[in-house]
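Exam prep: given the inputs below (a chain plus hypoxanthine), describe the expected output before reading on.
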Amino acid sequence: MDNQWKNCLEQIRRKTDFQPRIGIVLGSGLGDYGDQIQKEAVISYREIEGFPVSTVQGHRGQFVFGYIKDVPVVLMQGRVHYYEGYSMQEVVLPIRLMGLLGAGKLLLTNAAGGINTRFTAGDFMMITDQIATFVPSPLIGPNPQELGERFPDMSEIYDGKMQQKIRESARALGIPLQEGVYLQTSGPQYESPAEIRMMRALGADAVGMSTACEAIAARHMGMRVAGISCITNMASGVSEEPLSHQEVEEMGRIRAVEFRRLLEDVVPGIDKA
Ligand code: HPA
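Solution:
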């Protein structure tokens, strides 16, 4: 594992010396955003030997280096998920690489199911905290001491100052913004209604199959983290409808324009936070 990230980092550095300040992960349906920024370099995950490559339809696989409103960023168009069969260490490798490339801050986005009955499909939810107890920790195994300590603190995973900037952006743009706790499952199956009732009782507002493990790996190495979910559907049992990946992707696409407006304001904001 040790060698894997060092090796990947070297390969990226051979292709670009770009220094991002913010790493951004684009979730389901939101990946097209990377095509619209001022690009300096694009590196396909496939070009990096030893790098995990997504197998999910709707998830592309490349790093885009460039500027959003003059802020140097690295975007991940597509991420890999635990349910694809990668180890948690592999799943978070791209996050660690973004940190090692210079990104001190991380903005995670995803598609999620709404557990909180006050939410509506299409809402944006800023993540204020998370429940990662149902998936293995990405920090299991020998601790890479160069990255962070063995027992890292997780008392403020989502950075308070960055959250405030996101609230201010949403307010200024007139975009309604929910807030809540994100719970990660391994997937790939969607939840049963009984599982959703359990998650609600545990304090979760939204559920998805990514993000929490990435936030842990980022905090481990001292990156400051923010997260925004697009509530693409109400969770199992909340709505009568069966859930489908197609529906999740479609809602992601429908909300992509608004999401882009939010991101473009959020990025310079959190850069200063
Ligand atoms: N459950 C889990 N993951 C999801 C969902 C959901 O309802 N919607 C989008 N990602």
